[in-house]
Automatic annotation (TrEMBL):
Gene3D superfamilies: Acid Proteases (2.40.70.10). CDD domains: pepsin_A_like_plant (cd05476). Residues 64-84 are annotated as: Disordered. It comes from Sphagnum jensenii. It comes from the Eukaryota. Residues 66-83 have a biased composition (Polar residues). Residues 91-435 form the Peptidase A1 domain. InterPro entries: Aspartic_peptidase_A1, Aspartic_peptidase_AS, Pepsin-like_plant, PEPTIDASE_A1, Peptidase_aspartic_dom_sf, Plant_Aspart_Prot_A1, TAXi_C, TAXi_N. Pfam families: TAXi_C, TAXi_N. Keywords: Aspartyl protease, Glycoprotein, Hydrolase, Protease, Signal. This is Peptidase A1 domain-containing protein. Belongs to the peptidase A1 family. PROSITE patterns: ASP_PROTEASE, PEPTIDASE_A1.
């Protein structure tokens, strides 16, 4: 009897969670206010993917450059997101800004802090999805005075009469210049949050096209999540579940406690590693990689943060498409995958990728899966869809969606798809959880 009871209870719990979680309605299971935003479905095609590969490389280079140029302090560094055409390898979310509320479509970016959008009057603006935000028409818009903390948190500021000015430079030479200001932000259908700091960009130069701007979810004080938690609106927690690139469904994004409290059972948590040199990024301790069930061998320390320079380590980033591995680890993974491939290899240079093969007329594919092991026995199992992408329909040719990097590593968004990823950034927990799940 007492053996049976827990079994039954477990069954009931599972049923409740499944009903909540496997249906499209999952995020709505929790009706609290701020918690639910949507990430728009990614748009995918071979051409779009190849563009995304180029941007992914540019972003990796830009993050590297931001690290090289960064002062060794706690200030927020301009990191680097080439913003381009909507939804090609990036996940977009909508927030309301101003009074009356105007809807903006922004890139979700855990690899930067600033929230910014283009603003009228434009000195130079690119074409974007929604009408450009007009601060003059918002009754709650306020420029930030230079002495205020939010302004001092900016990396580069100038202070003309109009108030705090920002300049954010991206790795490919693109930049946004504008006024740092506050306005009311509305998330989902929720209650509005007054006085959120954001960059109102009047002069965008370079290769921006597409999204209205970026919503930074990094650890720094200017990110959306930090500002909301510093105001006491929510706790410093969020989760997302990125749908497969080929899906037309939205990806759920939960803010605040529900990210943790309404997560299904079985989320496995690994600690976030502090890197005082680059406080924006979320670093995880990658302790091993298995290919087709066998651990890959690479030198100790390949994925470790160097405590004197802050170099190395692995960042989890929603804004980078591919996964980049430090050279020694990457070479070992490539060799292991190759050893399991039965298809002829072809050059990937025209696709910007290294390991590509021609599947010819094969009707079912046999490809090795890869597991990333993190501290705390957290095994993130990458399925075929997380690893191999079609780059050419003639052939057809398929490539491994990873690349090498000199130094640090990035766990990119293709590899995050179809995993619930919970960021529990409250100082007492400071961990990130993973659970394999079909996101939408
Ligand atoms: C916009 O910013 C660029 C530098 O990024 C500058 O060269 C240019 O003069 C600015 N344009 C205007 C109209 O202020
Ligand atoms: C917001 O409200 C509209 C209309 O009431 C509804 O259709 C939509 O599903 C709601 N969105 C969310 C994210 O709750
Ligand atoms: C909804 O979230 C609150 C915390 O914000 C939590 O206490 C409650 O259990 C959640 N409800 C469900 C059904 O997950
Ligand atoms: C990271 O993992 C290695 C094992 O690969 C372990 O020795 C080290 O203590 C871990 N570091 C932290 C900060 O958890
Ligand atoms: C697949 O293509 C090869 C030549 O590329 C051919 O020899 C083989 O018969 C084809 N198989 C099928 C099932 O069509």
């Amino acid at each position: 009897m007492y053996l049976l009871m827990p079994m039954m209870m477990r069954l009931i719990l599972i049923v409740i969670f499944l009903a909540c979680f496997t249906s499209r309605n999952w995020p709505k299971c929790n009706h609290s206010i701020y918690d639910y935003m949507r990430l728009l479905p990614p748009k995918s095609s071979v051409e779009r993917f190849l563009e995304a590969v180029k941007r992914s490389h540019a972003r990796r280079d830009a993050i590297a450059r931001s690290m090289q140029s960064a002062p060794k302090s706690n200030s927020v560094k301009p990191s680097s997101i080439p913003v381009t055409t909507e939804g090609e390898g990036e996940y977009l979310t909508q927030i309301g800004l101003g009074t009356p509320k105007k809807t903006l479509t922004l890139i979700l970016d855990t690899g930067s802090d600033l929230v910014w959008t283009q603003c009228l009057a434009c000195q130079a603006c690119y074409q974007q999805i929604d009408p450009i935000f007009n601060p003059a028409k918002s009754s709650t818009y306020k420029p930030v005075r230079c002495g205020l903390n939010l302004c001092q948190d900016l990396y580069i500021t100038a202070c003309p009469a109009a108030g705090c000015q920002y300049l954010y430079e991206y790795g490919d030479g693109s930049s946004t210049i504008g006024n740092f200001a506050t306005d009311t932000v509305t998330l989902g259908n929720a209650t509005s949050i007054p006085s959120l700091g954001f960059g109102c960009g009047h002069n965008q130069t370079g290769s921006f096209t597409g999204a209205d701007g970026i919503v930074g979810f990094g650890q720094g004080p200017l990110s959306l999540i930090s500002q909301l938690s510093n105001k006491g609106v929510i706790s410093k927690r969020f989760s997302y579940c990125l749908v497969n690139m080929n899906s037309q469904n939205a990806s759920p994004l939960l803010l605040g406690d529900p990210a943790v409290t309404s997560a299904p059972p079985g989320v496995a948590y690994t600690p976030i590693q502090a890197n005082p040199f680059y406080p924006t990024y979320y670093y995880l301790n990658l302790t091993g990689i298995s290919v087709a069930g066998t651990p890959v061998k690479y030198p100790d320390g390949t994925f470790t943060i160097d405590s004197t320079s802050g170099n190395g380590g692995l960042i989890i980033d929603s804004g980078t498409t591919l996964t980049y591995l430090a050279t020694d680890g990457y070479n070992a993974v490539i060799a292991a995958v190759k050893a399991h491939l039965t298809y002829p290899l072809v050059s990937g240079s025209e696709y910007g990728l290294d390991l590509c093969f021609d599947i010819g007329n094969a009707t079912s594919l046999i490809l090795p899966t890869i597991v990333f092991h993190f501290t705390g026995k957290v095994d993130v199992v990458l399925q075929i869809e997380n690893l191999y992408v079609l780059v050419d329909t003639t052939g057809p040719i398929i490539c491994l969606a990873m690349a090498g990097n000199d130094g640090f590593s990035i766990f990119g968004n293709i590899q995050q798809q179809d995993h619930l990823i919970v960021y529990d950034v409250n100082p007492t927990n400071f961990q990130i959880g993973f659970k394999s799940i079909t996101c939408g």
